[in-house]
Amino acid sequence: MQDFFHTFFDWSEIAGVLPSLLREGLRNTLLIAVLAIMFGLVVGVLLAVPLLSDNLLVRLPARVYVDVFRGLPAIVTVSLVGLGLPAAGIRPFGRSPLGYAVVAVGLISAAYCAEIFRAGIQAVPAGQMQAGRSLGMSHLTTMRLVIVPQGIRNVLPALTGQFIVDIKESSLVYLLGLGLGQRELYFIAQERQATSYNASALVAAGLCYLSITIPLTYLVNWMDRRMRHGPRAADVGVVDVRRESALAEEQA
Amino acid sequence: MTPAISVRGLRKAYGRNEVLRGVSFDVAPSEVLCVLGPSGSGKSTLLKCLNLLETPTSGSVVVGGVTLTDPKVDIDAARARIGMVFQHFNLFGHRTVLDNITLALRHVKRIDKAEAVEIARTQLARLGLGHLAGSRPANLSGGQQQRVAIARSLAMRPEVMLFDEVTSALDPELVKDVLAVMRELAGSGMTMVVVTHEVGFAREAADRVIFMDQGVVAEDGRAKDVLDAPTSPRFREFLSQVL
Fold it and tell me: What is the ipTM of this complex?
């Protein structure tokens, strides 16, 4: 029991590794994750459009992309991009592994995001499109003003899940080998563990991951609730309703 | 007088399933036409062909002199002049009641915001819904939602109004509010095509009744005549079942 505690919760180990985790690791993890998430969102939207098409030929390339990148283990994709591309002479990011990690995690994220967007849009009842079209709005205008805003609400919880996966997958950059200043949370912890044979550094890194992912979950849940039920700062607010109700009652 | 709506040889098939099998009729300006018929008779499909929410397989639909079935026609511009109210209201759930009404005014008719709000408020007030302007559709009763949907259509100043079983999804006690609005609209001279199960409404508000059966018009005549003395056996049977 003493050993167990010492292996995972050695305070001097944790205190020793924490400064570089916070100063270097957290920054690089967030850098990879945020850029990969943005990459995934943008490419995901671009893929969701053809995924929603009625035309099989338009749909097919996007479908193949999604199936491939969802079907491959992340570690394979990261290796293919981060080790494969430079070996083939394609080095858009030079020797920095971070750029390749962003692209690899982003490519995977894009496949999942595309599916999330597609499902969210398709979950909006068909009657919404019919109502928009019956008022004379074009397909595109109805999409923009009616369907997509409602689809986004459907999609938020699933997207959070994807963001968390992206944050965790940023750790796979360790495969590519990182220099000083490039190291992210896992790499730092794993280096430390390899020299000390003590897992406390990994526990510390784990806590760092949780300090990002758990608040993120609750932040999005809060935003989700607000979007669904909360007041919206539109031109007409809740106050207006009360005032008008009061007026109506006075008149009655 | 040129008809407000003219339908000729309308056919609609989904794969091998022919839902409309050659439908022809005219609707005169200010006429209120009720379309009755059993489920699956094609009456809702017929209505959705009148603003091309469903694309007819063949035949022609002319509304206000514009041939909607002509592929060259600007269908969005044509639809802006044809109001439609749906069974399930289809209010935009993410928008307030007021925004629901101003949306098409601003983005189809290009009316500026202040004027669109003015039009919307006037329309809501006319239907006794002014106090709901800031509410979300989800917080309204079905009857209120349906009246907002009617207001949303009317705000566009349509030449004709299409009603697709608009009381079928409502609790019985809410039906009369919606029917009252429709009756008043009929009285104001609006051209209306009303797909409905409400034979009572057809009797008192309709000028004319069409009975659809298996994708064709089985009976067509003045409302009082055909409701009191139906000529086709299927219509007689239908009336005896709903009454």
Answer: 0.94
